[in-house]
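Posting here for the record, re: zinc ion.
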Amino acid sequence: MPELPEVETVRRGLEQKLNNFIIKKVEVCRDSTVAFPIKKEEFIKGLLNSLIYKWDRRGKYLIAQLKEVQNESAQFPLENFQNNGFLVVHLRMTGYFKFIENSSHPCKHTRIRFFDKNNNELRYIDVRSFGQMWWINKGLSINKIIKGLGSLGPEPFSKDFDANYLKKVISKRTKSIKAILLDQTIVAGIGNIYADESLYSAGISPFREARTIKKNELIKLKESIVTVLKKSIGSGGTTFSDFRDLEGENGNFGLQTNVYRRTGKECRKCGNLIERQKITGRSTHWCPKCQK
Ligand SMILES: [Zn+2]
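Prediction output follows.
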């Protein structure tokens, strides 16, 4: 599943590729991909003549700010165009975008197609079809309509996410620290890969009861999370999962993981073998010697 670094890689790709992309046609190939408005006709109509002005990311959500462009020859700055709400995307397990100059026949996993006046296409492909899109008209509350977005905890890179914050939210939690890191209401964007990698880097066992983790360990954990995520964003996300960037390429962070999917291999620090076990249904990889 794409996690924060992969979604951030997609965001940067979209921002680079879609220069002044004005949506002139929308084709919904699978109705269930449209989560809001309920009627897909409203989704399509709402997006027509929208300039995709800016891409943001919150947790694993991509959020496009839209501007309404009825008269393309208008010369005034883009900022002056009227807002036309937001296009929000969650890629879930296998969703990805492809930018296609001179549109071609879509593959069978194509879910939604956006075209500009020159027939350039932004295509959304999703093999397992768990991904969703919302068009949130101006005046409506994104956080109310998309519950998962409204309940997100702080971004790992924000100043709200520090050892004090962590100490406060986990002080009474008996859940494992691994489960805590996967909880999107506590911190946004971390999934299985980066939870395992961050805990290894901080020397903390994924099985530890969250409330037993000391302040100095939390300081280390926060630093590890930020370092691991930044490193992965820099290399375009991981090779694991079905993640693709806009060119259809995998990232290459997978080459550098220390524990994730290295079960039975030697720990890079101590030579002990990496182990794997499930925590709340998710495969967890760790070094029993380096992580206490
Ligand atoms: Zn080790």
